[in-house]
């Protein structure tokens, strides 16, 4: 396979100066080449979970019973016994290259592995076993650089690492590369929740997987995928429902799915579980867009910057969804750099990136008030449960007790070592 080429930032001033001359100029390229292994070899490693280890690059979080599942971005899943939130115990780590999304039903863990999805029996976290591989469920799985570069991997094998090589090239040209200065940032990926059922867990607002009763719904970049999980160990893919481009997140509420894209929020009715039906939508300018709802209002964060879209200032939009066919805007509020969010009663938690974790009183959506700000972390997603808060952040996994809002207390921190 041809190597993937990216241009690096440090020599950009040289490019700009040299570009004015009819003389020799140089450009430095960093060439990233994927290291592949056969799928059979990788899957054999998946069923050999490792002892628990520290969380290095936390992504999606998922709560099931007394267990906390944490995605290590593009590497695998931590299984943590969270019976005592003040002293969580890492039970095992499952190697799953290319993993960014997870969900659990019964004793089965569902995880994407690049364009595929595996079902894993985790009855014994140290002896997990693959019960089914669903191939090419996410065929559009691409790798995205910070300025739009991408490549489509060889889907017959799995990527297990990367090699890099810096190369400087001299040539004669007055032209300046229109994409110089690109940084290929940590191989950021587009991969491809809540439920009243006792046999499924709770996901954060950044999730792309949601389980409602006997069906799992997963969003790819363009569609909603319907998967029968009545027999959890052998999920059965049923259909794709086209939605549009830039689909990002999914949040279930009763018999509805609220789907966030970088152009709109979509609502689908799943009262007929295998046949989700479009109900309504609310368009917005192009931006990154997770959503949560309480059935009366929907709360949508719009993030500016990077490849997120056209807005220059991030914000929170609160929508009236009493009429699901025609949601209407109640009010917008400025934010710094929002990611995930979660609602508990009249409290709304927002992971505002570098601005920290924020807690708002939203009892009056037209006039919300900031109650608390935790500024010493850079949060990504959040799950509130019974007065306890689980936060996935740049610093690791943090848990808080917020049963007393005047004294929000840090319970534990699972952090990098």
UniProtKB/TrEMBL annotation:
<protein>
    <recommendedName>
        <fullName>LVIVD repeat-containing protein</fullName>
    </recommendedName>
</protein>
<dbReference type="Pfam" id="PF08309">
    <property type="entry name" value="LVIVD"/>
</dbReference>
<dbReference type="InterPro" id="IPR013211">
    <property type="entry name" value="LVIVD"/>
</dbReference>
């Amino acid at each position: 396979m041809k190597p993937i080429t990216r241009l690096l930032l440090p020599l950009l001033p040289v490019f700009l100066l040299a570009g004015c001359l009819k003389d020799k100029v140089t450009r430095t390229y960093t060439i990233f080449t994927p290291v592949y292994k056969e799928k059979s070899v990788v899957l054999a490693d998946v069923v050999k979970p490792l002892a628990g280890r520290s969380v290095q690059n936390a992504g999606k979080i998922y709560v099931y019973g007394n267990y906390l599942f944490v995605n290590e971005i593009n590497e695998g899943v931590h299984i943590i016994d969270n019976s005592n939130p003040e002293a969580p115990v890492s039970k095992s780590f499952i190697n799953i290259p290319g993993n960014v999304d997870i969900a659990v039903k019964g004793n089965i863990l569902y995880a994407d592995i690049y364009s595929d999805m595996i079902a894993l029996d985790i009855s014994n976290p140290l002896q997990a076993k693959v019960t089914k591989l669903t191939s090419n469920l996410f065929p559009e799985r691409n790798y995205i650089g910070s300025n739009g570069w991408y490549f489509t991997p060889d889907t017959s094998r799995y990527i297990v690492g990367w090699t890099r090589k810096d190369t400087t090239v001299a040539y004669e040209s007055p032209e300046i590369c229109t994409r110089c200065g690109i940084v290929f940032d940590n191989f950021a990926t587009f991969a491809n929740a809540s439920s009243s059922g006792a046999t499924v867990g709770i996901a954060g607002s950044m999730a792309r997987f949601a389980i409602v009763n006997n069906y799992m719904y997963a969003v790819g970049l363009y569609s909603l995928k319907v998967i029968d999980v009545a027999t959890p160990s052998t999920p059965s893919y049923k259909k794709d429902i086209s939605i549009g481009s830039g689909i990002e997140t999914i949040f279930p509420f009763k018999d509805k799915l609220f789907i966030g894209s970088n152009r709109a929020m979509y609502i689908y009715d799943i009262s007929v579980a295998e046949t989700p039906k479009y109900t309504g939508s609310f368009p917005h300018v192009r931006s990154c867009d997770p959503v949560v709802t309480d059935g009366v209002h929907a709360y949508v964060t719009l993030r500016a910057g990077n490849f997120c879209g056209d807005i220059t200032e991030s914000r929170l939009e609160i929508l009236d969804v009493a009429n699901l066919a025609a949601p209407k805007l109640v009010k917008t509020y400025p934010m710094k750099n929002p990611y995930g969010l979660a609602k508990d009663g009249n409290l709304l938690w927002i992971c505002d990136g570098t601005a920290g974790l924020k807690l708002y009183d939203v009892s009056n959506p037209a006039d919300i008030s900031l109650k608390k700000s935790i500024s010493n972390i850079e949060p990504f997603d959040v799950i509130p449960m019974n007065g306890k808060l689980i936060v996935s952040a740049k610093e690791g996994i943090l848990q808080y007790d917020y049963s007393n809002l005047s004294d929000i207390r840090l319970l534990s921190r699972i952090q990098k070592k």
